[in-house]
Design a protein that fits this description.
By secondary structure, the protein is mainly alpha-helical. The chain is 74% helix and 0% strand. Belongs to the dicarboxylate/amino acid:cation symporter (DAACS) (TC 2.A.23) family.
Length: 463
């Protein structure tokens, strides 16, 4: 290793950080700073990749330093996820008029999330079949085999439990433990606990309005505090994106990506197809899909680059309320539920494609109607409890493949293209939650169409 080269590489990254900081001081918009971080990261990462190659010790040590910014940013997002999910769900209950459309709104949002996930699974199946994906044809290197072994080890834990037992484990026995994110299903546990507290609040509001007012004031204060912390973290986004994209591109094995090019293309064909269905749903709600695309683009870009549905939650909620004209309660429900239920990309398309791709390796015909129907149902059920930050798609894949009695280890061959595909999956997850929110609000006739059709320039969502 050449220490001076590492110092030069780190110094170069810090110069780029300085450029983004200068843009912030000059009040350049949040979205433009994120775009700048994305572009600079890709270019810098590509330069490092071309200069050092992926096996360079110098590059590995440089990336280790880059991770202080990149991985540090992700850890900040993970730090705030559980408090954010908890208080967002709880605040949603305080923002509804007691009894008014509450059950209907929650039911519509949950139905849309699970329904679109089932539809996403069908699209993933169709794309995998159309591209004739077959996991047995893929070459496994040492990294892929190591990843496959790790997945098998995790799947063994899942396989030891029946489906009813897995469903039972979604119920939190210790909500404070779930607030630490200790379990794979901690997110749904926090959602359930917050929902119980929210329902309890509605009961107090009906019978003890004075106490309810005090509770609401406290919840609103905590919500404001947590959202302020989130805003501080979001200000770091351009820097985090810069470091993350630099690391991703610099360490990418483009040869391996080329070998898996068909899977990458098939994945993005499915992701784009499902996003177009989101636009169709928006149109069926009597709203302009182009307007939806324009007003959600910044939030979807953030989700794409950060690969964190949970990290995008504040922007998700703000976009729904300030740009799409949805009520606060609906936006909070849709955004928060969408973190752990019915993620169209991570819990829908991805595990369905993997199952179809792996099925031929064990002699199963992926075109068998019974196999397809069972797979769609399993995907929809397994979409409950998927984490909103990192690893959610892997957990969903383990659940689905284990339930379908398919070998989990073959999923390890995709390790080299995971970051590339995960960006698109995350953006689709967030779009799915916003689509669910728009649909629920429209059915309840609560969409403010003046806001929806208003000038985007007067609706900033900058961090």
């Amino acid at each position: 290793m050449n220490t001076w080269l590492v110092v030069i590489n780190v110094a170069a990254l810090l110069v780029l950080v300085g450029v983004l900081f200068y843009m912030q001081r000059r009040h350049v918009s949040f979205s433009n700073r994120v775009f700048a971080g994305l572009g600079l990261g890709i270019l810098f990462g590509l330069a490092l990749n071309l200069i050092y190659g992926t096996d360079s010790e110098t590059l590995a040590d440089s990336v280790d330093w880059f991770n202080i910014i990149g991985s540090g940013y992700v850890r900040f997002l993970q730090m705030i996820v559980m408090p954010l999910v908890f208080i967002s769900i709880l605040a949603a209950f305080t923002k509804v008029t007691t009894g008014k459309n509450f059950g209907k709104t929650a039911g519509l949002i949950l139905g849309m999330l699970v329904g679109t996930t089932a539809l996403a699974a069908a699209i993933g199946i169709g794309s995998a079949v159309a591209f004739n994906l077959d996991a047995s044809e893929l070459v496994q290197g040492s990294a892929e085999m190591e990843r496959g072994a790790a997945l098998e080890e995790r799947s063994a834990e899942v396989a030891d439990k029946t489906l009813p037992q897995q469903i039972t484990e979604l119920i939190p026995s210790n909500p404070f433990l779930d607030l630490t994110g200790a379990r794979p299903t901690s997110t749904i546990g926090v959602v359930i606990f917050a929902a119980f507290l929210g329902v309890a609040y509605l009961g107090i509001a009906r019978k003890e309005p004075e106490n309810a007012a005090m509770v609401k004031k406290g919840i609103d204060a905590i919500y404001a505090l947590v959202m302020r912390v989130v805003k501080l973290i979001l200000r770091l986004t351009p820097y985090g994106i810069l470091a993350i994209m630099t690391r991703t591109v610099a360490t990418s094995d483009f040869g391996a990506i080329a070998n898996l090019g068909k899977f990458v293309i098939a994945s993005y064909v499915a992701l784009i197809a499902m996003f177009l269905i989101h636009l169709v749903i928006i149109t069926l709600n009597g709203l302009n899909p182009i307007t939806y695309l324009k007003k959600t683009s910044e939030t979807l870009l953030f989700a794409f680059t950060s690969r964190s549905s949970a990290g995008a939650l504040p922007l998700n909620i703000k976009t729904q309320t300030d740009r799409l004209g949805l009520p606060d309660a609906t936006a909070n429900f849709a955004g928060s539920f969408g973190l752990s239920i019915g993620q169209n990309g991570c819990a829908g398309i991805y595990p369905a494609m993997l199952a179809v791709m792996i099925a031929p390796s064990v002699g199963i015909n992926p075109l068998d109607p019974g196999f397809i129907a069972t797979l769609i149902v399993v995907v929809a059920i397994s979409s409950f409890g998927v984490a909103g930050v990192g690893g959610g798609a892997t957990f969903a894949a383990i659940l689905v493949l284990s339930a379908m009695n398919l070998p989990v280890a073959l999923a390890g061959v995709l390790i080299s293209v995971e970051p590339l595909i995960d960006m698109g999956r995350t953006a689709l997850n967030v779009s799915g939650s916003m689509t669910a929110g728009v649909t629920a609000a429209n059915v309840n006739k609560e969409v403010d169409r003046d806001v929806y059709n208003g000038d985007i320039r007067s609706q900033p969502i900058d961090a």
